[in-house]
Amino acid sequence: MVCLGNICRSPLAEGIMKTKLPEHCLVDSAGTISMHEGQHPDKRAIAVAKNHGIDISQQRSRPITPADLRNFDKIYCMDLSVMEDVISLAENETQREKIQLLREAAGDTGQRTDVFDPYYGGMDEFEEVYHILDKATTVVAQKLLSANASL
């Protein structure tokens, strides 16, 4: 799960996705910038997750690296700008094929296929992002589980 700073959207997406996949599945998050590296998620993201029974308080922001494109089977991006930055790290077509917009991977083909950044908003925006991520990760998790019966 990748967003810009790895303190709002992608930590929420990581936390939510972990509740939908078996424990042995590795779910992680990163950002395309290192501005918040080492920091915990935004307090509003932590609060919204907690309100839904998910603890993301121990996550730490980190930048995405080329190794992530080698080591992970899927890379889900929160918006087109983030996706373009991640694609620029890809070393080959196989890695590029791993990268998708989360909402497109979930089959959301409406006019808005990005997960908007709630950073400059209030709790209402964080709550809305939570619901967008919950819906998208439910579909993506079901697809992953169906495609990989051994999960």
Description:
- The protein is mainly alpha-helical and 151 residues long.
- The chain has a single domain, classed as Response regulator (Rossmann fold, 3-Layer(aba) Sandwich), CATH 3.40.50.
- Helix content is 44%, strand content 7%.
- Strands 1-2 form a two-stranded parallel ribbon. A two-stranded parallel sheet has the order 3-4.
- α1 links the parallel β1 and β2.
- The two termini are 19 Å apart.
- The mean pLDDT is 96.
Keywords:
151 residues, mainly alpha, two-stranded parallel ribbon, 7 helices, 44% helix
Q: Any idea what the CATH superfamily is called?
A: Response regulator
Q: How many DSSP E strands?
A: 4
Poorly predicted ranges: none
Radius of gyration: 14 Å
Whole-number mean pLDDT: 96
What's the level 1 CATH class? Answer: Alpha Beta
> Structural class of the secondary structure composition?
mainly alpha
Individual helix count: 7
What is the name of the CATH architecture? 3-Layer(aba) Sandwich
Q: What is the overall shape?
A: globular
| Biggest sheet: strand arrangement | 1-2
The proportion of strand residues reads 5-15%
SSE order, one letter for each helix or strand: EHEHHEHHEHH
Do you know the CATH topology?
Rossmann fold
The proportion of residues forming helix, as a percent range, comes to 40-55%
The main sheet comes to: 2 strands, parallel
The domain count comes to 1
Gap between N and C termini, in Å?
19 Å
